[in-house]
Amino acid sequence: MVLESLAGSLRETLRKISRSSFIDRETIKEIAKDVQRALLKADVNVKLVLELSATLEQRANEEKPPAGMTAQDYLVKIVYEELLKILGEDSRLTLKEQTIMLVGLYGQGKTTSAGKLSRFFHRKGLSVGVIAADVHRPGAYDQLEQLAKKLNVPFYGEKGEKNPVKIIKNGLKAHSELKVKIIDTSGRDSLNDDLINEIREIKAAFNPDEVLLVIDATVGQQAGPQAHAINEAVGITGVILTKMDGTGKGGGALSAVSQIHAPVYFIGTGEHPEDLEIFQSKKFLSRLLGLGDLETLLEAFKETNISEEEAEESMNKLMSGKFNLKDMYEIWEKFAQPGLISKMFDSLPLAKMPGGNKIDSNAIETAQEKLRNYRVIMDSMTYFELENPDEINAKRISRISKGSGRTEADIRSLLREFKAMKNNMKAMKGNRGFKKMMRAQIKSGNFGLEDTEALN
Ligand SMILES: Nc1nc2c(ncn2[C@@H]2O[C@H](COP(=O)(O)OP(=O)(O)O)[C@@H](O)[C@H]2O)c(=O)[nH]1
Ligand SMILES: [Mg+2]
Asked: pLDDT for 286-300, tens place per residue?
């Protein structure tokens, strides 16, 4: 995952909040300092960090949590909201007929991203073609042509032609039947008038629907000035942040770029065409903070016949730390549907804790098999036993074993796992109020679930 170490320290901060018995000025100061340190380590601009921690501290001292929300949860909410401010608002590239122009310096990943975007639109069922308008770099034509061939995407270029406007004009004509046209333009080693004039001229001639800045995240905060200058020149409508794989500076680049108030649409996470992720700041932040990806979870529920109310009820039960085997049985009954379990694991913070075991598909298979076994065992338990798992003694285990045809070891293992699950869920309890707030947001449509489904 991107930004591992930032995630680690922010999660530790949230745990610290949950563990605090009360929230006073001292605690707030400490939390603000923690967030400050974590962000500075992730290369976020000092001025931004200081502003954020000052606002955080002020809000936490002045605001009162609404009825029903603990001071701890409310502080988590403030941390979340302030962090979201530096990531910028959620916005997504729309799936419609459009012309997209990619701009940026040499080596930032424009051509690679042209390929990634083609694949993206193609998979969404939109016909797409690319136009090679990088007239400066030797080999730029061949690079895009090969990529297009590999992806089975129509390519237009004019080898040797030096006028990008002319190429694009012909290219748009050649691709006129296609829904999405992607224009790959020239870069330079550094920002200069030559480059600015060239992209200005293209922008003026064709007025593309999207002008996407492609920028390498490994430059960290330096992404800021570059983004500003290009934005001044051509008006950036969105950003693709590349090379987010293996950089400690992703935080710096993300926060710097968001300052131009153009949404980060995608992040590039590798050299291959499939290494492109839709960037959604809320989702990204929730995952980063280990708050669990409620959006994904609710989407998963939507695909089943479980109603949102039922899903919420189950979640509440799980997180109350009070649930018994019967509740667990009911929840498993609902969740034992293909695909749902894996999505659930993926969206729960537990699976993503730093150092925790990320659950792979094999593990999910095994888990499903185990669930089937457990259900057989639970079918042989009495209601009393399901409601009072602590009362299940050796004598009862022996009876359940005979009734279910499973070994006594199987039954003990079920009881052990139940206990572990209960403890794990208790650990998440601190975020309950926060989750309530997130759910309210989802209900009010702030997360734009419908759009997400269309895009992902
Ligand atoms: N690791 C990684 N490498 C990338 C990514 N995007 C592009 N690259 C690499 O960066 C280099 C420059 O990319 P290119 O698309 O030619 O940049 P351009 O000059 O802006 O067109 C190539 O070696 C790409 O494979 C990314 O998201 N992750
Ligand atoms: Mg290129």
From this structure: 778 876 555 555 555
